[in-house]
Amino acid sequence: MTKDAPTPKRKDAEALNKVNAITSPATKATKARDRNELKAKRLTARAAYMRGEESALPLRDKGPNKRYVRNYVDSRRNVGEYFLPAVFTVLVLTVVHNKFVSLIAILFMYAAMLYTVISGIFMTRAIRKAVNAKFPGESTKGLGMYGWLRSTQMRRMRAPAPQVKRGETI
Q1: Residue 4's pLDDT is what?
Q2: Which of these, 16, 110, 128, 168, could form a disulfide with 164 (CB 3.0-4.6 Å)?
Q3: In a shared domain, residues 79 and 20
């Protein structure tokens, strides 16, 4: 018995004999193809989600009452959607080395926050009334908070994307 090569290390010999019970040994090309297919599936699912297709929505966004709340919020101009740019402006103004400007900026931020919360309370009540009128007998639990949280996001950043224009009646 002649030997042409050195004895392989135990780890290398076992790796050659190892077969995955779930999938067959994959080549780089197969892995790349699978990765590209998965990426394409994710992109199509994301596009369907952003269009608001019911089948692509997660459980928290499904249902006709949630669609109605989204359209209710998206058809109105809300103070909450301007809160994030206002906070960014306040952040920039607090860097200014003028105590008066910093104080005014911080007071503006707290006033905007308070106004956003108060308008959110009123919006929550209005959403519940509108949902009760549109879907009598359906539970309104969580719909007010769902609408208020959506109203605090900038319109361009909302997911799923708004399906109605501002001022449009729903």
Answers
A1: 82
A2: 168
A3: no
